[in-house]
Amino acid sequence: MANLDRFLVKSETAIRDVMANIGLAKGLALIVDGQTRLLGTVTDGDIRRAILTGVDTARPVGDLLKMPRSPDRAKPLTASANTPSARLLQMMSEAELRHIPLLNDSGQVVDVAVLEEMVKDYELPFTAVIMAGGQGTRLRPLTETTPKPMLPVGGKPLLEHTIGQLRTAGIRRVEITTHYLGEVIKQHFGDGANFGVAISYLRENEPLGTAGALSLREKSDEPILVVNGDVLSQVDVRALLDFHNEHRAAMTVAVRRHQFEIPFGVVEINGVDILGISEKPTISYLINAGMYVLSGEALSLVPPGQHYDMTDLIRDLTTIKRRVVGFPIEEYWMDIGRLSDYKKVKEGIQEDSSP
To answer: Whole domain around residue 133: which residue ranges?
Structure first.
């Protein structure tokens, strides 16, 4: 039996509190009444879509049940508590779900069927590609003899943290793109056996941009996860992949809100007439977080052996009217592209590990 406490929430619980716990509940929250009767379900994707629309996460999670949903998700898929495991696995496969609430005759939640707990050594059917070929010029002199993804964080290379995160998420196949000091990466990780994954390498003879190295892969129609090698995060990888599948996207881009304060009063003017002034306003943008899910169709657009960036791929997909969606990140995330960022990451890891 699943630990129900990690799944059950009340309608009045704040959205932000549900999101803080939803990773422990495999991406699902069950909204119940005082007698644990099921009122509705909220997924990780539901919350992230609400964040993109500007919903205040201090609002009660029950409000999400009132938001429009696709017809196939208008009512949660449930099963009887005595449903055989084989039937539950079939239902999950048909509906592309990872969990199904199990109810008794009174509509009370008595258990939750969780795919990765029902299937031993559950493996996500995805290959992850880690882009690790950059020279890290902004991090010199640290990167003069060490490639950026191999810089130490918390006693081990940054890239090892990323591979460990993928392994925990259920991904067993990893490809690493290399160029600058690629032999250092290959010597450390080898075939990946010591790290619980199977690793292969894509060698760039010359820099091919943030997406061009994907053309070096064997041709496949299967979707892949792409992660920049200089990113340290606690993003729920399974939630990202579920989000991509749910939206039937050609490409999913992880995005993060970045805010900065203009240190001056900003004047709104029409001709010579001042209409108003805002004192040190805060500007907010969604930025590219360096994590992507690409469909087979998206991969087919990457030209072989040419410099090609993710921005080029997004442009080309939208030009041919293919769907590109944004997945908002609320978890810890840090890019170590600059010395100041790397210092923050190292200090943060030390603080987390201190008694």
So the answer is: 127-353
Same structural domain, 342 and 290? yes
Percent of the chain with pLDDT over 70: 94
Shared-domain flag, residues 249 and 285: yes
Give tens-digit pLDDT for 306-339: 999 999 999 999 999 999 999 999 888 888 888 8
Report the number of distinct structural domains present in the chain: 2
- 36 and 87 in one domain? yes
196: alpha, beta or left? (left if phi > 0; alpha if psi -120 to 50)? left
pTM: 0.80
| 156 and 24 part of one domain | no
